[in-house]
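Protocol step 6 of 9: fold each sequence in the batch and record its structure tokens directly after the sequence line. For illustration, a two-sequence batch is reproduced in full.

Sequence one:
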Amino acid sequence: MAPRTHFSRAQARRIALAAQGFHEGRPTAATKRHVSRVLQRSHLLQIDSVNVLVRAHYMPLFSRIGAYDRGLLETTAYRRRKREAFEYWGHEASLIRLDLQPFFRWRMERARRGEGIYGGLARFGSENRSFIEEVRREIASRGPIGAGELSIGGKGQGSWWGWSDGKRALEWLFWAGLVTTATRRGFERIYDLPERVLPAEILDAPTPSEDEAQRELLRLSIRSLGIASERCLRDYFRLEPQDAKARIPELIEAGDLLPVTVEGWNGPVYLDPQAKLPRRVEARALVSPFDPIVWERTRTERLFDFRYRIEIYTPAEKREFGYYCLPFVLGERIVARVDLKADRAAGNLIVHSIHPEAGVLPEEIAPPLGDELRLMAEWLNLGSITASKAWQKKLEV
């Protein structure tokens, strides 16, 4: 890119889409190499329990490389000899590039001091050190095991967050980096000691200082964002505001962040020195609510003029667009919201509703959206697609 200090909103949008790989065509047949490339570019994949369509960490790959064997991600994430990722708190719970593990040790150390973790878990850790150590010893002698297999710690209280004391101990140990995820059974995390899960060359790598690690995480953030405000930069790996504010001037001085301005954006904006500005982006992708392109909602509004909120926690009568609406990216714009559900028992992809953005005609989006829905149904092994009568005809599904 030729040196410049001011960008239009359209240019910023293309930079952001290119940073996440949306400017590239999808492969004819996705392989593990393509899965690895997405992970290398995004650095992490957010994990979430919602499974109305497909688990969150599978979707960013589909959005970028199309239909792929989900077993490729399982191999990348959990198979010992081919592992390229580890689970930890990156952008919420995440699968993170394995080589970045040393750059999260400062966060693990803070967690051991009760800093940067949930308040209740911090108190539990402070008040139950002997019990937590007993749980760690059981993992050492019996692992890999799930929380329900512990001989101590009792049972949960029924709800998702009704954790048993054993589960609390395991989650504190996980935050502290004293246990890690060996694999998952269904969606259940299976814990073991890091030395039995992660390669020795990773564990033996030098531990960067807090300052050095935070600078590197911010460098990675701008590479994945292309162009970003301070808020977006720190949100990528969920850095504390005071940490980001201290590191950003250092990165500007080093030339790792270039201060720029963007049409209509207030406040400081930073550019990746290696950012690409394509002449055009011809994307076609349904993206999940947990995709990096829409993580930071104010950024989504700035880039796409698209106000987006996930409504799974909104009472049904108050939902505006639907339970699990996916933005539909077409070209360089987000042109619609599509409320989807995978009915696995019936082998059906249900299109509850489609909401085109203002000024977007249904006829404009129906053909490419129909193609994307057919690809998704094939990927999820769903034999049929059901939409409203009007949309069924337009989509030709």
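Sequence two, same batch, same settings:
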Amino acid sequence: MPGTRDLRARIEAALRQDWQRLFSYAHRLTRDRDEAADLLQSCAVKALAAPRGPDSEASLRAWLYTILRNAWVDQLRQRPPSGDDAALGPAGAELWSFDDRLIADLTVRRALERIDGQHREVIELVDLAGFRYAEAAQILAVPTGTVMSRLSRARLALLEAIEGQNIRPIHSGRRHVA
């Protein structure tokens, strides 16, 4: 079937083009590089096995993110409930220098780990992956207005988490004589 071959070629091209972004999204969802790799592999298999897919390239990209997210949700449902998500720890040690951009990136990454999963997810889709509100709504299976309000709350939560990481002076109980 020529249509099926064409779809497969388009899916393969989209996967190659967005592999790093899809992996980044999977890594943010799972907080583990190996799980993210497995999740992305599962997404690729499911996409390539699909009998039909979107016609436009933009829709195809959003469709891949939807498959990835749904695979992650399925994995979460299969896991037994665990204690605390914070016990997962950071995604890995990062080597860094005193480069302002790298410090800002690390600050945002650490803050993303501290905010609610829904907030992290909408920031990842809109601000980091570059999806429009309507595309993110399609991926999350919610109305566009919900994405907009979640994103607003998520950005506020992210700012609060970043502010909470700032170093603050420790005031001693001693009085200094002038």
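Proceed to step 7 once all outputs are recorded. Observation for sequence two: Residues 84-98 have pLDDT under 50 and may be disordered.
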